[in-house]
Amino acid sequence: MTEVVVCDPRRNKLLEDGSKADKVDARKLAELLRAGLLRSVYHGHEATRKLKELVRAYETLSTDTLRTMARIKAIYRGRGIRTPGRGVYQLKQRQQWLELLTEPGVRQRVTWLYEQLDQLRRLRGKAKQTMLIESRGHRAVSLLRTIPQLGAIRAAFIVATVDTPHRFRTKRQFWSYVGLAVVTHMSAEYEMKAGRMVRRRKPAATRGLNHNCNRRLKEVFIAAATSASNRKAYGTFLNARQENGIRPEMARLTLARKIAAMALAVWKKGEAFDPKKLNVTT
């Protein structure tokens, strides 16, 4: 039996160096494979394939809805008409807004955009309902929903993306996949002193969070931590960090990492969330 390895092209930096051709790329891939430098792409299970497609459909319709709303406001703002709030999208106020547009062509264009927005909203509602119905058939979704701020939609997103928690041996590996791992850079780690090689005491420089990550999950956990900032369930956890001198934005990041770690642990163990573990140091 021959093993086929599907690798991540973002990690094959050797392919970008030198000439590019089919034979050259094949030789470089063979060299990377022989050295064990190719990282295979994870392929999900058949059980979650339908949920994956429904999540993609809901995300696409949500993005299209926001894009259409932005186009409507852009037309008004381009003509010096202020559009505060969401009143410009309301069905009862549309005629009043359309009367502010003096050009017939522009008014017709906005009318079509309103029709497009109505259609997208209806389709997004259907996609959301279908996605949530499908997600109820996965036990992992019900387990994740026991964690505060992980509602039905966020839990469905996590299950559809991660597929199985056993892909990650530790929470730090999961943080890296989610995009919550801190990247550090350090050079000249050792120096010569008195004829001996000694390690410098220079601390590693922090370069923020890792960029090579799953954007969907990063948005899920960052949004969960942001909306949980004023909730009682996480109040003690956040206050304890801020009392130790951590900045509010860093405290929210710590909370996002905590929620991600709890989601992985709950899913792996198959047990409901225990609120007493919130105050445990991450």
What does this structure look like?
54% of the residues lie in helices and 6% in strands. It is mainly alpha-helical. It has three domains: 41 residues, no CATH class; 89 residues; 114 residues, no CATH class. Strand 2 and strand 3 form a beta hairpin. The model has no long low-confidence stretch (mean pLDDT 88).
Short note summarizing the structure:
This protein is 54% helix and 6% strand.
Task: List strands and helices in order, with pairings.
Blueprint: H1 22-34, H2 49-78, H3 94-99, H4 104-135, H5 139-144, H6 152-162, H7 171-178, E1 182-185, E2 190-193, E3 196-199, E4 205-209, H8 215-227, H9 232-243, H10 248-269
Antiparallel strand pairs: 1-4, 2-3
Defining traits:
282 residues, 3 domains, 54% helix, 10 helices, mainly alpha
Radius of gyration: 25 Å
- Total number of strands: 4
How are the strands ordered across the major sheet? 1-4
What portion of residues is helical? 40-55%
Helix/strand-derived class?
mainly alpha
Mean pLDDT: 88
Overall geometric form:
globular
Order of helices and strands: HHHHHHHEEEEHHH
Total helices: the number is: 10
User: Beta fraction of the residues?
Assistant: 5-15%
Biggest sheet: strands, sense, closure? Answer: 2 strands, antiparallel
Low-confidence stretches: none
Distance separating the two termini: 44 Å
The tally of domains stands at 3
